[in-house]
Model the fold of this input.
Amino acid sequence: MRTFRTVLEQRIWERRLTLEEFAEYAEQFAREHGEPGTIGVRHLQRLVAGQRRPGEPLGRVQPVTARLLERIFGVSVEELLSEPFVAEAAGEVVPAEPPARAEVDLAVVLDWLDDRVGWTAGISRSKVRSHLAKLGSDGALLDHRARRARIGRKRLTSVLADYYGTSAGTHGLYAARCGGSEITTSILTRRTWLDLGVPLTPEHDRLTLVDGEPHPRAALGDVGAMAAVARLAESAALGVRVANLPLYRLLSVDLGPTIDGTVGMVPFAEYALTVDLLEREVTEALGEGKWRSRLPLRDKYLPDLRAVLDLPGRVCAGGVLALCAIARPRDQFRDAPDFAVLVQERSGHVLNGTGRLAVIPKGFHQPLTDFRADARVGATLLRELEEELFGRSDVDTTAHSGRAASPMHLGRLSEPMRWLLEEPGRLRTECTGFGLNLVSGNYEFAGLIVIDDEDFWRRYGGQVEANWEAAGLQLYSSLDSELITELVSRESWSNEGLFALLQGLRRLRELGDDRVRLPLVEHSGL
Done:
Protein backbone atom coordinates (compact mmCIF):
# COMPACT_ATOMS: atom_id res chain seq x y z
CA MET A 1 0.00 0.00 0.00
CA ARG A 2 1.34 3.43 -0.94
CA THR A 3 2.18 5.66 2.04
CA PHE A 4 2.20 9.44 2.09
CA ARG A 5 4.18 11.82 4.24
CA THR A 6 1.47 14.51 4.30
CA VAL A 7 -2.18 14.91 3.38
CA LEU A 8 -1.02 17.37 0.71
CA GLU A 9 1.07 14.70 -0.97
CA GLN A 10 -1.89 12.32 -0.82
CA ARG A 11 -4.29 14.88 -2.31
CA ILE A 12 -1.95 15.64 -5.22
CA TRP A 13 -1.50 11.90 -5.91
CA GLU A 14 -5.28 11.39 -5.84
CA ARG A 15 -5.57 14.00 -8.61
CA ARG A 16 -3.06 11.93 -10.65
CA LEU A 17 -0.72 14.90 -10.99
CA THR A 18 3.04 15.08 -10.75
CA LEU A 19 4.53 17.82 -8.60
CA GLU A 20 5.49 19.72 -11.76
CA GLU A 21 1.93 19.44 -13.12
CA PHE A 22 0.41 20.52 -9.80
CA ALA A 23 2.74 23.55 -9.60
CA GLU A 24 1.53 24.61 -13.07
CA TYR A 25 -2.09 24.02 -12.04
CA ALA A 26 -1.64 26.08 -8.86
CA GLU A 27 -0.15 28.95 -10.87
CA GLN A 28 -3.13 28.93 -13.25
CA PHE A 29 -5.59 28.67 -10.34
CA ALA A 30 -3.96 31.67 -8.63
CA ARG A 31 -4.28 33.80 -11.79
CA GLU A 32 -7.93 32.87 -12.34
CA HIS A 33 -8.93 33.50 -8.72
CA GLY A 34 -6.90 36.63 -8.01
CA GLU A 35 -4.57 34.95 -5.53
CA PRO A 36 -1.06 36.47 -5.17
CA GLY A 37 0.56 33.23 -3.97
CA THR A 38 2.68 30.93 -6.14
CA ILE A 39 4.28 27.53 -5.47
CA GLY A 40 7.45 26.45 -7.25
CA VAL A 41 8.38 22.80 -7.62
CA ARG A 42 11.24 22.97 -5.07
CA HIS A 43 8.95 24.66 -2.54
CA LEU A 44 6.27 22.06 -3.23
CA GLN A 45 8.77 19.28 -2.61
CA ARG A 46 9.43 20.67 0.88
CA LEU A 47 5.72 21.08 1.58
CA VAL A 48 4.74 17.53 0.63
CA ALA A 49 7.67 16.20 2.69
CA GLY A 50 6.58 18.24 5.69
CA GLN A 51 10.14 19.36 6.38
CA ARG A 52 12.65 21.88 5.05
CA ARG A 53 15.50 19.35 5.02
CA PRO A 54 15.76 15.84 6.50
CA GLY A 55 15.28 16.24 10.24
CA GLU A 56 14.60 20.01 10.01
CA PRO A 57 11.06 21.30 10.68
CA LEU A 58 9.25 22.94 7.79
CA GLY A 59 8.61 26.18 9.66
CA ARG A 60 5.88 28.74 9.09
CA VAL A 61 4.15 28.67 5.70
CA GLN A 62 3.74 32.10 4.15
CA PRO A 63 0.09 33.27 4.41
CA VAL A 64 -0.26 33.77 0.63
CA THR A 65 0.90 30.18 0.03
CA ALA A 66 -1.34 28.83 2.79
CA ARG A 67 -4.34 30.70 1.40
CA LEU A 68 -3.75 29.39 -2.12
CA LEU A 69 -3.55 25.77 -0.95
CA GLU A 70 -6.63 26.18 1.27
CA ARG A 71 -8.65 27.53 -1.66
CA ILE A 72 -7.54 24.70 -3.96
CA PHE A 73 -8.30 21.87 -1.53
CA GLY A 74 -10.95 23.40 0.75
CA VAL A 75 -9.21 22.42 4.00
CA SER A 76 -6.78 24.20 6.32
CA VAL A 77 -3.07 24.26 5.57
CA GLU A 78 -2.47 22.67 8.99
CA GLU A 79 -4.49 19.64 7.88
CA LEU A 80 -2.75 19.52 4.50
CA LEU A 81 0.67 19.40 6.16
CA SER A 82 -0.33 16.79 8.73
CA GLU A 83 0.25 13.04 8.40
CA PRO A 84 -2.63 11.27 6.63
CA PHE A 85 -4.76 8.69 8.39
CA VAL A 86 -3.66 5.13 7.66
CA ALA A 87 -5.89 2.11 8.29
CA GLU A 88 -4.05 -0.31 10.58
CA ALA A 89 -5.75 -3.58 9.81
CA ALA A 90 -5.37 -5.19 6.42
CA GLY A 91 -8.58 -4.95 4.45
CA GLU A 92 -10.05 -2.30 6.75
CA VAL A 93 -12.53 -0.05 4.99
CA VAL A 94 -11.36 3.56 5.24
CA PRO A 95 -14.27 6.00 5.59
CA ALA A 96 -14.96 8.24 2.63
CA GLU A 97 -13.37 11.68 2.80
CA PRO A 98 -15.74 14.15 4.48
CA PRO A 99 -16.93 17.13 2.47
CA ALA A 100 -14.78 20.26 2.57
CA ARG A 101 -15.54 22.87 5.22
CA ALA A 102 -16.75 25.35 2.58
CA GLU A 103 -19.28 22.81 1.23
CA VAL A 104 -20.66 22.14 4.71
CA ASP A 105 -20.91 25.87 5.48
CA LEU A 106 -22.76 26.55 2.24
CA ALA A 107 -25.17 23.67 2.88
CA VAL A 108 -26.03 25.11 6.31
CA VAL A 109 -26.71 28.56 4.84
CA LEU A 110 -28.83 27.08 2.03
CA ASP A 111 -30.90 25.16 4.59
CA TRP A 112 -31.38 28.42 6.51
CA LEU A 113 -32.59 30.16 3.35
CA ASP A 114 -35.04 27.35 2.52
CA ASP A 115 -36.47 27.59 6.03
CA ARG A 116 -36.71 31.41 6.12
CA VAL A 117 -38.40 31.72 2.74
CA GLY A 118 -40.63 28.67 3.20
CA TRP A 119 -39.17 26.73 0.28
CA THR A 120 -39.02 22.95 0.13
CA ALA A 121 -35.61 21.64 1.15
CA GLY A 122 -33.19 21.89 -1.75
CA ILE A 123 -34.94 24.72 -3.60
CA SER A 124 -32.37 27.33 -2.59
CA ARG A 125 -29.51 25.10 -3.78
CA SER A 126 -31.26 24.68 -7.12
CA LYS A 127 -31.79 28.42 -7.47
CA VAL A 128 -28.17 29.20 -6.54
CA ARG A 129 -26.96 26.63 -9.08
CA SER A 130 -29.19 28.17 -11.74
CA HIS A 131 -27.95 31.67 -10.92
CA LEU A 132 -24.35 30.46 -11.07
CA ALA A 133 -24.91 29.20 -14.59
CA LYS A 134 -26.00 32.69 -15.65
CA LEU A 135 -23.08 34.52 -14.09
CA GLY A 136 -20.50 33.67 -16.74
CA SER A 137 -16.77 33.65 -16.18
CA ASP A 138 -14.86 34.59 -13.04
CA GLY A 139 -13.39 37.50 -15.01
CA ALA A 140 -16.83 38.99 -15.66
CA LEU A 141 -17.72 38.63 -11.99
CA LEU A 142 -14.52 40.32 -10.90
CA ASP A 143 -15.20 43.16 -13.35
CA HIS A 144 -18.69 43.54 -11.89
CA ARG A 145 -17.28 43.66 -8.37
CA ALA A 146 -14.66 46.18 -9.44
CA ARG A 147 -17.37 48.46 -10.86
CA ARG A 148 -19.15 48.43 -7.51
CA ALA A 149 -15.88 49.19 -5.74
CA ARG A 150 -15.33 52.21 -7.99
CA ILE A 151 -18.41 53.95 -6.58
CA GLY A 152 -16.71 56.73 -4.62
CA ARG A 153 -17.20 57.12 -0.90
CA LYS A 154 -18.41 60.73 -1.28
CA ARG A 155 -21.06 59.73 -3.78
CA LEU A 156 -22.27 56.86 -1.60
CA THR A 157 -22.41 59.10 1.47
CA SER A 158 -24.28 61.81 -0.45
CA VAL A 159 -26.94 59.34 -1.59
CA LEU A 160 -27.42 57.99 1.93
CA ALA A 161 -27.65 61.53 3.32
CA ASP A 162 -30.37 62.29 0.75
CA TYR A 163 -32.22 59.10 1.70
CA TYR A 164 -32.05 59.50 5.49
CA GLY A 165 -31.29 63.15 6.12
CA THR A 166 -28.18 64.22 7.97
CA SER A 167 -29.38 64.37 11.57
CA ALA A 168 -31.89 63.04 14.10
CA GLY A 169 -31.95 64.90 17.41
CA THR A 170 -28.45 64.76 18.90
CA HIS A 171 -27.29 62.29 16.23
CA GLY A 172 -25.67 63.34 12.98
CA LEU A 173 -23.27 62.17 10.29
CA TYR A 174 -19.63 62.08 11.33
CA ALA A 175 -17.74 64.89 9.59
CA ALA A 176 -14.25 66.30 9.98
CA ARG A 177 -11.77 68.77 8.52
CA CYS A 178 -8.23 67.69 7.69
CA GLY A 179 -5.65 69.57 5.67
CA GLY A 180 -8.21 71.91 4.18
CA SER A 181 -10.56 69.08 3.14
CA GLU A 182 -14.11 68.70 4.43
CA ILE A 183 -14.94 65.04 4.97
CA THR A 184 -18.39 63.57 5.64
CA THR A 185 -19.01 59.88 6.25
CA SER A 186 -22.04 57.60 6.47
CA ILE A 187 -21.38 57.01 10.19
CA LEU A 188 -24.27 58.22 12.37
CA THR A 189 -22.85 59.30 15.71
CA ARG A 190 -23.09 61.93 18.47
CA ARG A 191 -20.66 64.05 20.46
CA THR A 192 -20.74 61.74 23.47
CA TRP A 193 -19.71 58.79 21.26
CA LEU A 194 -16.48 60.43 20.07
CA ASP A 195 -12.96 60.87 21.46
CA LEU A 196 -13.64 58.28 24.16
CA GLY A 197 -10.09 57.12 24.92
CA VAL A 198 -11.54 54.19 26.87
CA PRO A 199 -8.89 51.55 27.71
CA LEU A 200 -10.02 48.13 26.50
CA THR A 201 -9.46 46.45 29.85
CA PRO A 202 -11.97 44.32 31.78
CA GLU A 203 -12.64 47.23 34.17
CA HIS A 204 -13.68 49.56 31.34
CA ASP A 205 -14.80 47.20 28.53
CA ARG A 206 -18.13 45.89 29.85
CA LEU A 207 -20.52 44.84 27.08
CA THR A 208 -22.77 42.11 28.50
CA LEU A 209 -24.37 39.15 26.74
CA VAL A 210 -28.12 38.85 27.38
CA ASP A 211 -29.17 35.20 27.45
CA GLY A 212 -32.02 34.00 25.27
CA GLU A 213 -32.83 37.34 23.62
CA PRO A 214 -34.73 36.44 20.40
CA HIS A 215 -33.54 38.18 17.26
CA PRO A 216 -35.95 39.82 14.78
CA ARG A 217 -36.82 37.66 11.77
CA ALA A 218 -37.64 40.04 8.94
CA ALA A 219 -39.79 38.52 6.19
CA LEU A 220 -37.61 38.17 3.10
CA GLY A 221 -40.28 38.32 0.39
CA ASP A 222 -39.55 37.57 -3.26
CA VAL A 223 -37.12 40.45 -3.75
CA GLY A 224 -35.18 39.66 -0.58
CA ALA A 225 -35.07 35.93 -1.36
CA MET A 226 -33.68 36.44 -4.86
CA ALA A 227 -31.14 38.98 -3.59
CA ALA A 228 -29.98 36.35 -1.08
CA VAL A 229 -29.67 33.76 -3.86
CA ALA A 230 -27.60 36.19 -5.94
CA ARG A 231 -25.29 36.88 -2.98
CA LEU A 232 -24.69 33.17 -2.39
CA ALA A 233 -24.11 32.43 -6.07
CA GLU A 234 -21.57 35.22 -6.44
CA SER A 235 -19.83 34.21 -3.21
CA ALA A 236 -19.57 30.60 -4.38
CA ALA A 237 -18.22 31.65 -7.79
CA LEU A 238 -15.55 33.92 -6.33
CA GLY A 239 -14.54 31.68 -3.43
CA VAL A 240 -15.80 34.09 -0.75
CA ARG A 241 -16.03 32.33 2.60
CA VAL A 242 -19.53 32.23 4.11
CA ALA A 243 -20.04 30.38 7.39
CA ASN A 244 -23.24 30.56 9.43
CA LEU A 245 -21.49 31.26 12.73
CA PRO A 246 -23.02 33.36 15.52
CA LEU A 247 -22.51 37.11 15.59
CA TYR A 248 -23.20 39.52 18.40
CA ARG A 249 -26.09 41.92 17.78
CA LEU A 250 -26.21 45.16 19.69
CA LEU A 251 -29.24 45.76 21.91
CA SER A 252 -28.11 48.84 23.84
CA VAL A 253 -25.00 50.94 24.34
CA ASP A 254 -23.91 53.47 26.98
CA LEU A 255 -20.56 55.15 26.43
CA GLY A 256 -18.49 57.33 28.74
CA PRO A 257 -15.53 56.43 30.98
CA THR A 258 -16.54 52.82 30.29
CA ILE A 259 -18.17 50.86 27.47
CA ASP A 260 -21.47 49.54 28.79
CA GLY A 261 -24.33 47.92 26.94
CA THR A 262 -25.95 44.63 26.04
CA VAL A 263 -25.64 42.23 23.13
CA GLY A 264 -27.60 39.22 21.95
CA MET A 265 -26.79 36.60 19.33
CA VAL A 266 -27.80 36.24 15.68
CA PRO A 267 -26.82 33.68 13.01
CA PHE A 268 -24.46 35.09 10.39
CA ALA A 269 -26.93 34.19 7.61
CA GLU A 270 -29.61 36.39 9.21
CA TYR A 271 -27.25 39.33 8.76
CA ALA A 272 -25.45 38.43 5.52
CA LEU A 273 -28.63 37.61 3.58
CA THR A 274 -30.72 40.56 4.81
CA VAL A 275 -29.27 43.93 5.92
CA ASP A 276 -25.77 43.24 4.60
CA LEU A 277 -27.26 43.20 1.10
CA LEU A 278 -28.02 46.93 1.38
CA GLU A 279 -24.50 48.00 0.37
CA ARG A 280 -24.60 45.89 -2.78
CA GLU A 281 -28.08 47.19 -3.61
CA VAL A 282 -27.19 50.88 -3.35
CA THR A 283 -23.86 50.60 -5.22
CA GLU A 284 -25.49 48.68 -8.08
CA ALA A 285 -28.31 51.24 -8.26
CA LEU A 286 -25.76 54.06 -8.32
CA GLY A 287 -23.88 52.36 -11.12
CA GLU A 288 -27.08 52.20 -13.16
CA GLY A 289 -28.17 55.74 -12.23
CA LYS A 290 -31.47 54.46 -10.77
CA TRP A 291 -30.95 54.66 -7.02
CA ARG A 292 -34.07 56.72 -6.27
CA SER A 293 -36.34 53.95 -7.57
CA ARG A 294 -34.17 50.90 -6.95
CA LEU A 295 -33.77 50.43 -3.17
CA PRO A 296 -36.55 48.00 -2.20
CA LEU A 297 -34.39 46.15 0.35
CA ARG A 298 -33.42 49.38 2.11
CA ASP A 299 -37.06 50.46 2.10
CA LYS A 300 -37.87 47.15 3.80
CA TYR A 301 -35.03 46.59 6.27
CA LEU A 302 -33.75 50.08 7.18
CA PRO A 303 -36.22 52.70 5.91
CA ASP A 304 -35.41 55.69 8.14
CA LEU A 305 -33.24 56.96 11.01
CA ARG A 306 -35.80 55.83 13.56
CA ALA A 307 -35.25 52.26 12.34
CA VAL A 308 -31.46 52.77 12.39
CA LEU A 309 -31.56 53.84 16.04
CA ASP A 310 -34.00 51.08 17.07
CA LEU A 311 -31.25 48.63 18.03
CA PRO A 312 -33.36 45.92 19.71
CA GLY A 313 -35.96 46.09 16.95
CA ARG A 314 -33.64 45.08 14.13
CA VAL A 315 -30.60 42.94 13.31
CA CYS A 316 -27.76 45.28 14.30
CA ALA A 317 -24.54 43.32 13.81
CA GLY A 318 -21.24 45.09 13.74
CA GLY A 319 -17.54 45.19 13.92
CA VAL A 320 -14.41 46.32 15.69
CA LEU A 321 -11.58 48.03 13.81
CA ALA A 322 -8.54 49.96 14.92
CA LEU A 323 -5.72 52.13 13.69
CA CYS A 324 -2.50 50.29 14.53
CA ALA A 325 0.66 52.32 15.30
CA ILE A 326 3.94 50.51 15.98
CA ALA A 327 6.99 52.36 17.32
CA ARG A 328 10.07 52.09 15.08
CA PRO A 329 13.66 53.09 15.88
CA ARG A 330 15.77 55.34 13.72
CA ASP A 331 17.48 53.33 10.96
CA GLN A 332 19.12 53.65 7.55
CA PHE A 333 15.80 54.60 5.94
CA ARG A 334 14.49 57.08 8.54
CA ASP A 335 16.50 59.76 10.32
CA ALA A 336 14.21 59.82 13.39
CA PRO A 337 12.13 57.32 15.40
CA ASP A 338 8.44 57.22 14.48
CA PHE A 339 5.30 55.08 14.49
CA ALA A 340 4.49 52.84 11.54
CA VAL A 341 0.79 53.42 10.79
CA LEU A 342 -0.82 50.45 9.00
CA VAL A 343 -3.51 50.61 6.31
CA GLN A 344 -4.96 47.73 4.27
CA GLU A 345 -6.79 47.34 0.98
CA ARG A 346 -9.56 44.77 1.42
CA SER A 347 -9.23 41.73 -0.83
CA GLY A 348 -11.76 40.20 -3.19
CA HIS A 349 -12.34 37.29 -0.81
CA VAL A 350 -14.14 39.25 1.91
CA LEU A 351 -17.91 39.50 2.04
CA ASN A 352 -18.04 43.30 1.78
CA GLY A 353 -15.77 46.30 1.40
CA THR A 354 -13.91 44.67 -1.49
CA GLY A 355 -11.19 46.94 -2.86
CA ARG A 356 -11.75 49.56 -0.17
CA LEU A 357 -9.11 51.01 2.12
CA ALA A 358 -9.48 50.29 5.82
CA VAL A 359 -7.46 50.28 8.98
CA ILE A 360 -6.15 46.94 10.21
CA PRO A 361 -7.15 44.93 12.21
CA LYS A 362 -10.84 44.88 11.26
CA GLY A 363 -13.32 42.15 12.04
CA PHE A 364 -16.84 41.15 12.97
CA HIS A 365 -17.75 41.35 16.63
CA GLN A 366 -18.35 37.66 17.30
CA PRO A 367 -17.41 34.98 19.83
CA LEU A 368 -14.82 32.24 19.53
CA THR A 369 -15.65 29.76 22.33
CA ASP A 370 -16.51 31.78 25.45
CA PHE A 371 -19.65 33.64 24.39
CA ARG A 372 -19.85 35.83 27.51
CA ALA A 373 -16.20 36.81 27.86
CA ASP A 374 -15.79 37.31 24.11
CA ALA A 375 -18.51 39.98 24.12
CA ARG A 376 -15.87 42.53 25.19
CA VAL A 377 -14.75 44.78 22.37
CA GLY A 378 -11.11 44.17 23.30
CA ALA A 379 -11.49 40.41 22.90
CA THR A 380 -12.40 40.80 19.23
CA LEU A 381 -9.62 43.35 18.69
CA LEU A 382 -6.88 41.12 20.10
CA ARG A 383 -8.15 38.12 18.14
CA GLU A 384 -8.16 40.12 14.90
CA LEU A 385 -4.65 41.40 15.62
CA GLU A 386 -3.49 37.79 15.99
CA GLU A 387 -5.31 36.65 12.86
CA GLU A 388 -4.76 39.56 10.46
CA LEU A 389 -1.22 40.66 11.32
CA PHE A 390 0.49 37.90 13.31
CA GLY A 391 -0.43 34.84 11.20
CA ARG A 392 -2.80 32.95 13.56
CA SER A 393 -5.00 31.23 10.96
CA ASP A 394 -6.53 28.96 13.62
CA VAL A 395 -8.52 31.89 15.07
CA ASP A 396 -10.04 32.62 11.64
CA THR A 397 -13.60 31.47 12.25
CA THR A 398 -14.39 31.25 8.52
CA ALA A 399 -11.66 28.68 7.90
CA HIS A 400 -11.35 26.62 11.09
CA SER A 401 -13.64 24.83 13.50
CA GLY A 402 -13.45 25.93 17.13
CA ARG A 403 -11.69 22.92 18.61
CA ALA A 404 -9.40 24.71 21.06
CA ALA A 405 -11.03 25.38 24.43
CA SER A 406 -9.14 28.65 24.85
CA PRO A 407 -7.83 29.90 21.48
CA MET A 408 -6.34 33.05 23.02
CA HIS A 409 -4.62 31.23 25.89
CA LEU A 410 -1.07 32.46 26.50
CA GLY A 411 0.28 29.06 25.49
CA ARG A 412 -1.31 29.28 22.02
CA LEU A 413 -0.43 32.89 21.19
CA SER A 414 1.88 33.85 18.37
CA GLU A 415 5.37 34.86 19.45
CA PRO A 416 4.77 38.58 18.75
CA MET A 417 1.50 38.61 20.75
CA ARG A 418 3.01 36.65 23.63
CA TRP A 419 5.86 39.15 23.85
CA LEU A 420 3.40 42.07 23.89
CA LEU A 421 1.33 40.60 26.71
CA GLU A 422 4.19 39.37 28.89
CA GLU A 423 4.80 42.82 30.39
CA PRO A 424 2.25 45.58 31.11
CA GLY A 425 2.62 48.69 28.98
CA ARG A 426 3.92 47.05 25.82
CA LEU A 427 0.50 47.03 24.16
CA ARG A 428 -2.11 49.77 24.53
CA THR A 429 -5.65 49.33 23.13
CA GLU A 430 -8.36 51.97 23.36
CA CYS A 431 -11.82 52.65 21.99
CA THR A 432 -11.76 56.04 20.23
CA GLY A 433 -15.33 56.28 18.96
CA PHE A 434 -18.61 54.59 18.13
CA GLY A 435 -21.22 54.99 15.41
CA LEU A 436 -23.89 53.34 13.29
CA ASN A 437 -23.04 52.90 9.62
CA LEU A 438 -25.92 53.89 7.34
CA VAL A 439 -24.53 51.71 4.54
CA SER A 440 -25.97 48.58 6.17
CA GLY A 441 -26.88 49.61 9.73
CA ASN A 442 -23.77 48.05 11.32
CA TYR A 443 -22.41 49.31 14.61
CA GLU A 444 -18.75 50.28 14.49
CA PHE A 445 -16.40 50.39 17.47
CA ALA A 446 -13.35 52.39 16.34
CA GLY A 447 -10.13 51.84 18.24
CA LEU A 448 -6.44 52.60 18.50
CA ILE A 449 -3.65 50.06 19.02
CA VAL A 450 -0.31 51.52 20.09
CA ILE A 451 2.91 49.53 20.56
CA ASP A 452 5.23 52.02 22.28
CA ASP A 453 8.27 49.79 22.72
CA GLU A 454 10.39 50.03 19.57
CA ASP A 455 12.10 46.77 20.52
CA PHE A 456 8.97 45.07 19.14
CA TRP A 457 9.80 46.34 15.65
CA ARG A 458 13.40 45.14 15.93
CA ARG A 459 12.25 41.68 16.98
CA TYR A 460 9.05 41.15 15.01
CA GLY A 461 8.63 43.88 12.38
CA GLY A 462 9.53 41.39 9.66
CA GLN A 463 6.77 39.02 10.79
CA VAL A 464 3.95 41.56 10.54
CA GLU A 465 2.01 40.41 7.48
CA ALA A 466 -1.62 40.80 6.42
CA ASN A 467 -3.75 37.67 5.99
CA TRP A 468 -6.09 36.69 3.13
CA GLU A 469 -8.59 39.45 3.96
CA ALA A 470 -6.20 42.11 2.63
CA ALA A 471 -5.05 42.53 -0.96
CA GLY A 472 -2.15 44.63 0.27
CA LEU A 473 -0.67 46.40 3.27
CA GLN A 474 0.62 49.99 3.30
CA LEU A 475 2.81 51.68 5.92
CA TYR A 476 2.86 55.40 6.70
CA SER A 477 5.17 57.29 9.02
CA SER A 478 3.61 59.23 11.89
CA LEU A 479 6.10 61.99 10.96
CA ASP A 480 4.82 62.30 7.38
CA SER A 481 1.98 64.78 7.79
CA GLU A 482 1.82 65.51 4.06
CA LEU A 483 1.41 61.91 2.93
CA ILE A 484 -1.12 61.09 5.65
CA THR A 485 -3.17 64.16 4.69
CA GLU A 486 -3.23 62.83 1.12
CA LEU A 487 -4.19 59.38 2.43
CA VAL A 488 -7.18 60.80 4.30
CA SER A 489 -8.50 62.43 1.11
CA ARG A 490 -8.64 59.24 -0.98
CA GLU A 491 -12.03 58.21 -2.33
CA SER A 492 -11.35 54.50 -1.95
CA TRP A 493 -11.85 54.45 1.82
CA SER A 494 -14.70 52.52 3.36
CA ASN A 495 -16.74 54.81 5.58
CA GLU A 496 -16.06 52.83 8.73
CA GLY A 497 -12.37 52.63 7.86
CA LEU A 498 -12.10 56.39 7.41
CA PHE A 499 -14.01 56.97 10.66
CA ALA A 500 -11.55 54.78 12.57
CA LEU A 501 -8.56 56.38 10.83
CA LEU A 502 -9.61 59.95 11.67
CA GLN A 503 -10.49 59.12 15.26
CA GLY A 504 -7.24 57.19 15.64
CA LEU A 505 -5.17 60.08 14.22
CA ARG A 506 -6.83 62.52 16.65
CA ARG A 507 -6.00 60.29 19.61
CA LEU A 508 -2.46 59.47 18.46
CA ARG A 509 -1.75 63.18 17.97
CA GLU A 510 -3.03 63.82 21.48
CA LEU A 511 -0.84 61.06 22.95
CA GLY A 512 2.11 61.81 20.71
CA ASP A 513 5.65 62.78 21.51
CA ASP A 514 8.58 63.46 19.20
CA ARG A 515 7.50 60.46 17.12
CA VAL A 516 4.30 62.19 16.01
CA ARG A 517 3.81 64.98 13.50
CA LEU A 518 0.29 64.28 12.29
CA PRO A 519 -2.19 66.58 10.52
CA LEU A 520 -4.86 68.27 12.62
CA VAL A 521 -8.25 66.53 12.42
CA GLU A 522 -11.15 68.68 13.63
CA HIS A 523 -14.76 67.60 14.04
CA SER A 524 -17.38 69.53 12.13
CA GLY A 525 -21.14 69.33 11.89
CA LEU A 526 -22.06 67.82 15.28
About this structure: The mean pLDDT is 87. The first helix runs from residue 7 to 14. The first strand starts at residue 51 and ends at 53.
